[in-house]
Amino acid sequence: MTRRLVIIGGDAAGMSAAAQARRMKTADELEIVAFERSSRTSYAACGLPYLVGGFVASPDDLVARSPEQHRAKGVDVRTRHEVIAIDVNASTVTVRDFDAGLQSAMHYDELLIGTGASGISPPWPGIDATGVVQLRTLDDAAQVERLLVTGARRAVVVGAGYIGLEVAEGLLKRGLHVTVVERLDTPMGAVLDADMATDVAVAMRAAGIDLRLGVAVTGFTVVGGRVAAVKTAAGAMEADIVVIGLGVRPNADLARAAGIGVGASGGIAVDDHMRTDTPHVWAAGDCVTTGRELQIR
Fold it and tell me: What is the pLDDT confidence band of residue 291, given thresholds at 50, 70 and 90?
């Protein structure tokens, strides 16, 4: 009897699990269905700042395997489908088909949750304005590109971590005036020793980036629905585009609502085999936390 593995999320973790499962089981033994709410699968999100900067020529260059390629390998990938609920008692997922405008339920024998993470968005006034973006997906990169080709000239990057610095470099290469705002006293302060962080600050300024350290953002000035400036305790900075790079939070709400264990840090709790505390439910990728937190709900 054929069993069914349902995968939520069609990016790195989900499709890696799908590929491994297919190598272990034939189609007669295991049906694999993967739901992905966007239209893309298996792309290198870490390359998005380099796509924005023009170091990578095309979005397609970041795609490791398309939905069609996964299907050719025996994985039933359904793009533009979002899982909106999990019933662990009935072993079903409820799925919304964006194109058909319909909802349906699907039974699973095994479930893998790979819902990833979302960028942190503080409740700053104006954060929903056009021109204020996170850079997490290819659609986000496309939005940045639209802003650039329609005349954006002044960019403010909020956060001087890895993503913030990479985005700043890319926007500088595209000819924008770039300001980086960081509430800490050094860039990359969470990962570098003070002397190294100081060297990074010197290099950023030497490259032409206006680096503002020890400055906290308080909100945005919005004119006609578009961002016009970034407000801080030290004054405002004009901006046509704002990229927020303040880290991520795991997307664990779906699991939490289903009663699947979530750790104190907010990720789905898993053991060293990526098993959750719920039978036949697994999780992997940016949505999980590992270790002793498995016992915390």
Answer: low
Q: Across residues 232-254, what is the average pLDDT? A: 95
> Per the domain annotation, does 55 fall within a domain?
no
Indicate if 104 and 161 belong to the same structural domain: no
pLDDT at residue 1, rounded to an integer? 87
| Helix (H/G/I), strand (E/B), else coil: 25 | coil
Cβ proximity of 63 and 43 under 8 Å: yes
Are residue 213 and residue 189 in the same domain, yes or no?
Answer: yes
Instruction: State percent of the chain over pLDDT 90.
Output: 94
Rounded CA gap, 55 and 51, in Å?
6
- The answer to whether 12 and 42 are in contact (CB under 8 A) is yes
Residue 134 domain boundaries: 121-244
Torsion-angle region of residue 54: left (phi > 0), alpha (psi -120 to 50) or beta?
left
| d(C-alpha 286, C-alpha 62), whole Å | 19
Average pLDDT score over residue span 48-54? 95
Of 209, 135, 140, nearest in space to 169 by CA: 209
Looking at the DSSP bridge assignments, the partners of residue 235 are 232
CATH label of the domain that carries residue 79? 3.50.50.60
Give the chain's domain count.
2
Is the separation of the CB atoms in 241 and 248 below 8 Å?
no
Respond yes or no: is residue 287 known to be catalytic: no
The pair of structure tokens assigned to 193 is: 């020793």
Residue 36 has pLDDT above 50, yes or no: yes
Which of 2, 3, 23, 46 is an active site residue? 46
Q: Is 225 found in the same domain as 149?
A: yes
